[in-house]
Amino acid sequence: MKHLLSTADLSKDEAVLLLDTAAQMAATQSREIKKLPTLRGRTVVNLFFEDSTRTRISFETAAKRLSADVINFSAKGSSVSKGESLKDTALTLHAMGADAVVVRHWASGAPYQLAHAGWLDAGVLNAGDGTHQHPTQALLDAYTIRRHLVGLRGGAGEGVGADLAGLRVAIVGDVLHSRVARANVALLHTLGAEVTLVAPPTLVPVGVETWPCAVSYHLDETLAEFRPDAVMMLRVQRERMSGGAGGFFPSPLEYTRYYGLDARRLARLADHAIVLHPGPMNRGLEISAEAADSDRAVIVEQVANGVAVRMAALYLLMAGEDSAEGNDL
Amino acid sequence: MSLESTTYVLRGARPLGGDAADVVLRDGVIAEITAAGTADTTGAEVVDAAGQVLLPGLVDLHTHLREPGREDAETVASGTRAAAAGGFTAVHAMANTSPVADTAGVVEQVYRLGQEAGWADVHPVGAVTVGLDGERLAELGAMADSAAHVRVFSDDGRCVADPVLMRRALEYVKAFDGVVAQHAQEPRLTEGAQMNEGIVSAEIGLTGWPAVAEEAIIARDVLLAEHVGSRLHVCHLSTAGSVEIVRWAKSRGIDVTAEVTPHHLILTDDLARSYDPTFKVNPPLRTAADVEAVREGLADGTIDIVATDHAPHSREDKDCEWGAAAFGMTGLETALSVVQETMVDTGRLTWSDVARVLSAAPARIGRVDTGPAAQGRPVAVGEPANLTLVDPAARRTVDGGTQVTASGNTPFRGRELPGQVRATFLRGRATVLDGTPVVAGEAVR
What we know:
The structure holds 2 protein chains of 2 kinds.
Chain A: H1 12-28, E1 43-48, H2 53-65, E2 69-74, H3 86-96, E3 100-105, H4 110-116, E4 123-129, H5 135-152, E5 168-172, H6 179-190, E6 194-198, E7 214-216, H7 219-225, E8 230-233, H8 252-259, H9 263-267, E9 274-276, H10 289-293, H11 299-319
Helix pairs in contact in A: 1-5, 1-11, 2-11, 5-6, 5-11
Chain B: E1 8-15, E2 21-26, E3 29-35, E4 45-48, E5 53-56, E6 58-63, H1 76-85, E7 88-93, H2 104-117, E8 121-124, H3 140-145, E9 152-153, H4 163-172, E10 179-182, E11 195-196, H5 199-204, E12 208-209, H6 211-228, E13 232-234, H7 240-251, E14 256-260, H8 288-300, E15 305-306, H9 335-344, H10 351-365, E16 387-397, E17 416-426, E18 429-433, E19 436-439, E20 442-443
Parallel strand pairs in B: 1-4, 1-5, 6-7, 7-8, 9-10, 10-13, 11-12, 13-14, 14-15
Antiparallel strand pairs in B: 1-2, 2-3, 5-16, 16-17, 17-18, 18-19, 19-20
Helix pairs in contact in B: 1-2, 4-6, 6-7, 7-8
């Protein structure tokens, strides 16, 4: 496993291996001493071209729990705003001997370029690129879904070794601009789950018809007919609401009315169904306080699982490369 | 330009792909066309043209030479040398330079730089609006009356989006038989657009540039041209819908012409999956169905010409994130090969048709087909000796680093293409011999 750029690149076996490794990592996190010596002497660079304190801290925690040295590189701006170019940044990191680069970038495809342009020979882990992909988010979502709906419910412990066959997942909100949605559709499909995207038509991309999922414009209908086992609410960015380049829906109130997960809709979910959200939440917009704070919500647990999943990804990327030669995840 | 005149005998050339002949160039004109092996070669330089196709010198209606302003990417001299290497004897230099070619002063500067360089005739395109800002007309009359004799006006790179301004421009240029060449891109529908909107953009998360943003402007403009009785030229048409609209407009008798670029004849938006900004261009690469539609449109005459939209960019403007990279790709040195591969080798165009779409028709649209520097003329005795010899049997692998253009952003890097320009003549003077640009008889590469 050399890079982790897109969930679309993962085979089912690779995805299950990542989830199983995350389960092993999670098990170590209940010990008094959480730190493992696995990546001692290795250097992980968190290269963030876009602010994301949550994701950066999650990766930083994961790397430190594996005893890696962590360098945080906040590269604001880009070649557009006359900052250092992506290429020079990559050459710099190469010169410093980075073993893995965790990259968050506003431009779709930037991690792909870092991995393939020949500027750098470190492993590249995509921590979110533009409106393209966010593989570790999808992996932690899948991990959380598996733990609750296959493991705990099925009495199979953490669900180790299992995929998500037969489970139904509704992903609700701004699909058009969401890397979380793209990453999840690909991964959930690979793991055998059935996915329905729910969004106003303005927030569904042209070209969605080739995605391995269904699309609905009606949340109530989806909850009633699709009967999802998990409902994943996507964050709605404030700038999508205003006029100009925004104006994707008439008002926040109307959005909430048709696409918000409120107490009424929550009550219509199956007893076992869980509610996910990648955070940060807009309470009162895509999700009400009742839904966010209900015992169906696994949103806080997603954060904890994020550390375990990122430990697994870093481990397989850096320590696992000898044992999985040519297995370019 | 005042060099002593060499007489050339092109031995065994095939005019427009026909039977082999000897073609004699003397005093800037085609002096004689005679049976192969029969021309008198006394005192003449003989060019072995056996098997090579002789075409009129190619005329590009859409070239970015970047000078003044971005001489790091291309100059009039380097761009026209690349043009000669690609078989061109005339290029129309787009107006989006810095300063913008929106005054008689700038167009005359570009025109003179072209004359000094001597590789090909340079016909500056004048901006439609001041600074390409789409707010008020530039002094179109002054540019038309200048030494540069501008007949083609375009805000290329930007669309003349305001319908009233477009109407006025279409009307105004009638006074001097000008034409407005529209870059059809509805700006509000393409804010932040990075690539064709469709299956690939949805998957790879790049903001889409929908076909309708091109088609809506073309539809509006053909109706405006009909209403005011003007002629319209559509730049770099790229979608199946655009072909249909132009076909409809022509069937109604509307005076519209259209161009397609070589890259839209062969490349598709699948290439964006590489996130390699070499493939970032405006209008964007479209789908395979669009490629087929523009080939069909070119074959049936709906699309009048092939124009390169040669858009050189410095390495730093391409060696970056897709979203930060400049739009555009080079094309002068590969255009003829792409047309051969997509249209000639597939049997959809003859070499005679190639002469039409890459020489005669663009010269006529640009109104450079008459007068002492006439281009796009027939290959016939007495006509100006603007000619190119291409070896259609040659195959070559494109290498951005060894091209003549000053920029390396060719989308065909590493790709094998058919056809090689062996020689180019500008009014009887060789600008390319043995496939290499020459100055005063010397290779300069």
